[in-house]
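Amino Acid Chain and Its Fold in Token Form
===========================================
Scope: a single protein chain, as residues and as a discrete description of its fold.
Amino acid sequence: labelled as such and written in the usual single-letter residue code.
Position: the record begins directly beneath this header, with no further notes in between.
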Amino acid sequence: MTRAPTSYHRAVPTAAALILLAGCVSPLQEASTETLRESVRESAARELRPSTDRPEPVDLVRQPGELSFPPERLQELERMAGPTAYEPGVPPLSPGLPDEVDLPVRMSLQQAVLRAIEHNLGVQSARIDPAIAEAQVVAARAAFDWVFFGNVEWSSVDEPQLTPQVGGVNVGTSSRVNQSVGYTTGIRKQLTSGGNLSISQGQTYLDNRDTGTQFSPDPSNRAELNIAYDQPLLRGFGSDVALAEVRLAQNTERRSVEEYRRTLIATVTEVERAYWDLVQAQQNLKIFIRLLERGVETRDVLKSRLAFDVKPAEFSDAVATVERRRANVIRATNTLRQQSDRLKALINDPDLTVGSDALIDPADNTLDAPVAVSLYDSLTTALANRPEVQIAILSIDDASIRQTVADNARLPLLDLSFAAQFQGLDRDVGDAYSDVGSARFVDLLLGAVFEQPIGNRAAEAQFRQRQLERMQSAVGYRRTVQDIALEVRTALRNLSTNYRLIEQTRTARLAAAENLRTLLVQEQTIQSLTPDFLDLKFRRQEALAAAEGDEVQALADYSIALAELHRATGTALERNRVRFVVPDAGARR
């Protein structure tokens, strides 16, 4: 022990100066990243540049059909076929499962979306991920929490030892006998500078029982206060390295939030698609049922005239046609039930399970209104709102963090260590701690450790790997931007195409309805039903049903295309009045 009262005044400023390094950031910053940033900015600008000359939204247009009818005739044709020609609701269904009882449940698109947001299994799973990531952030930050430590030791020593002699006379004792008990308690902390700080205090009671040897004081109490600080000066220095895991965990949390939002957008879009597919399936079933009714009516007329001018073969053809149409009704009924089950599975409402006999009856009709679109606006909105863009940016940031750490790891190891021990020894415990408080006895230690691998190949290879990964993440961002631009353009084209198809398919349906109406009028004036006439009648009935199906398909595709456009622009939640709220992990505990 060295008695150095004045050393205390030198130790405290030294320790304070070293501890202040905890808040420092490494001066060895990464080289300029302006080239990479410019590349990222150019990726978005390149996709937006071609559309900047036409930024204003333009209404969708479609070419009117070439047919025109007087109002009375048009009303008659609309009653014969078309979306308004059928009663709303679920039509009578053919049997499904042996014990199945269809229970229609009226539901709007908004209700289906909100139920899916609340109960969909994929959404429920994705909703948990941000909470998991938040726990990972807390765990990463916990590495810098204060840690309390302590230990207690008791020992009893009774061992022989060599006894020195001087002039044939024993000097000392032939055995060492003592008992001691001590404890140490303290706190330590990992600092954001990369260093470690430890403060501890302890006491040891020693009762010496050596024969022929006297100590003073005996028994004794030894007290001590220790301050230790280790700080890297090169490799491992700075908050940019020490906090790397925290920043990566924070990015993981942000990524999980964006993944959750992407799941919500995908689920909402899938629900919309399933809903309009169900509307189409229900409308197709109604078309097939009416087509069957028309076939049955024609068959019955032929049956009533078998004794006059209808041949058995002609009647058999009519029966075959009717049965074929009946088979189509059975298939359409099965499709309707399957589409209803698909929507129920997406919604996953506990009151509307897939195993139940509930049959969803869509309350909303397909859309037939033009919308104003702009490629520039759509691309700008997509780049600002798509979760994939944010995820790609986070990937670049992750790669940058890892590159910074790898760059720092190339430096030599140069660690500075400082320790100060304040001691006291007395028979009385209070007097021993009084010596510690007055800094009568102080030991100081200042050391440095240097290390550098010859060639440093491992660190250089790791740094090169991280550089390539960062370049790869930038390429991934550009690919994401390109994919989004492709999705937006495809969605806009599909929207425009299906909007135009509505008019063309409607004109075709009106023409087919007029052909059938004309044939029915002609049927009232002819004396006999020839095979050619009957075949023509059946064909015109089926042509009208096919034209109706095409119109229903165009209407459903237009509604789906509008949903896909909002998915492509990342605005599906806003369109369906769904407010996105980041899940709160504390609320779920």
Q: What stands out?
A: The CA atoms of residues 174 and 287 lie 113 Å apart. Confidence is low (pLDDT under 50) at residues 1-32. The longest strand covers residues 175-190. The chain has 14 helices and twelve strands.
